[in-house]
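Changelog-adjacent note: as of this version, every example in the card shows the full chain rather than a window. The one below runs 327 residues end to end.
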Amino acid sequence: MRIPYQQLKTEFERILTSLDVNSTVARAIATIFADNSRDGVLSHGLNRFPTFIEYIKEGLVVPDAVPTKLNAFGAIEQWDGNLGPGMLNARFCMDRAMFLAEDNGIGCVAIKNTNHWMRGGTYGQQAADAGYIGICFTNTIANLPPWGGTEPRLGNNPLIIAIPREGGNVVLDMAISQYAFGKLWQYEAQNKPLPVPGGYDKEGKLTTNAAAITESKRALPIGFWKGSGLSLVLDLLATILSGGDSTAVITQSGRKETGVSQVFIAIKTDKEKNASLIEQIIEYTKSSQSDGEILFPGESMLRTREESLKNGVWVDEGAWAKIKNYK
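Full-length structure tokens:
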């Protein structure tokens, strides 16, 4: 079913304020969750909201906590997230990175002890909308076996690279697993096969069955061994730059996926000067012969956003009913 964007945001805000979350904080969080659903990222919008509420109730997310600065080294800063809402900590860090980049050409802000940022592309868009190149990544709990292994030891460690562009930013937002776990859960709920194999079943065979992959805990890394290596170095960078916890420490602590480490980089650029170059690259890429449509990263999201604002946001009826009935 479809519902108006504003109605979705209002319901999120209502629930948050019922938990005594500050109205300003509740509005900011509700907007990010609603924006995620609006842009078609249901796994980190409406569908993820009940889990976020449980984390608040369990004390894993501290709604009124704000980041505190720990260290500064030129264009690099380290912050402690104090277990505040991950999406607000992330938005703050990208703002700081852009502030540093304004004077230095580049800014890097690393944060430890923070929480899930929901859709990482949000903060790439934030930078690109302001005219900066945005790069950010996070570590996670271990949920991806290293290449050659059968037990999770790596995180799916999302990586975001956003480039400002008139008419719609180019935003690469990808997990290091072939399918983000939110996408696997979506296919599982719909009882649909994956378009291409996304992992192994319990017998060690590649499969398009999302339920079999979540059961075996053997998701496939992008690019096989290359994705495995990329996940490892992103964890190393996030941990070293922030001085925070690694995937290993987060996992072995036995806690849920909280207290993660993240990095936000902003690079100053001349949007107008680069416009023709960007269009040339995109046009050349799209000139390839194809059986279908060739899209640049983020293009499909822009179309979904436009449709959601015009016709309403797609929501799962069961998930929406749960939100509406929340007292």
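Structural remarks: Residues 20 and 52 are 15 Å apart (CA to CA).
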